[in-house]
Fold this protein.
Amino acid sequence: MASDSTGFSVLDAVKLVEDFSFENFYYNSQGKDVLKELEKREQGESSFFDMYSDIEMKIIMDNLDLFSMVLLGVLKREHPYQIWPKSLIFKEIQFLDIHGGQKVADVGAGSGALSILLGVIYEDIELCVNEIDASKIGVVNEKIKRTQSLNATNVFTTKIGNKFSCGFEGLDLDKIILRYTFHHFSEKKKMLESLKKSLAPTGELILIEDVDKHSNQVFIKASCPQAMKKRNIKKKLRKAGFELVEEYDYLNNSFFKYKIR
Ligand SMILES: C[S@@+](CC[C@H](N)C(=O)[O-])C[C@H]1O[C@@H](n2cnc3c(N)ncnc32)[C@H](O)[C@@H]1O
């Protein structure tokens, strides 16, 4: 496997770009082009990335989290790399409405793309990152160590959860984010109880879900086979003692903000 001088392989880079945001990746042709080019470089074929010297490639690799967001069209190309207003992630960030001083949990964080982004764009926040899959938490820990653009005032903790609990009970969290995660919980009722015990009394539980959609009389199926219907999501939350305070639809995504009833 080709490896650059940082020890970070191009294949890792491909994976990182891929998992950055599967939604943005599929919606954005630039993302696909980057993947193709990185794969070509991995296979030793000439490619766009061959234009770069080893030193330039090291700079790209050292800042890959930032760089891939630029290439995916999430961040603008010029410093200070503002988030592109039409990207899905921009809408998500707006909806999350995070402020300095807050304690925020990303539950079922996958390989941590959102958490890393929050750690880059905010300061003075506490980020509690949970995943049931220990190998993904390993990836998140590596990203936290590696990403140079993380704001030093932010505090990260990572936790391997289980199917019944997020492990953050009693933390009085201001926000809990479930990004494309709720429909994957095998024990939804127990997880909702655990999340409730982890929130501050005024805290918010935020769900981002990929759902079936009708657009101009065309039916668009959610990309995940396990995706739930909107009304089923709402029913489960209501039964668990949560009250819907805000809802927003963008592309195939529905954003829900809940408070404890
Ligand atoms: C579709 S992925 C979404 C990952 C990430 N939130 C994102 O936006 O890319 C769903 C994730 O939920 C995790 N998951 C499923 N059940 C879980 C549970 N009970 N507790 C924590 N994570 C869970 C899976 O391991 C998977 O990484």
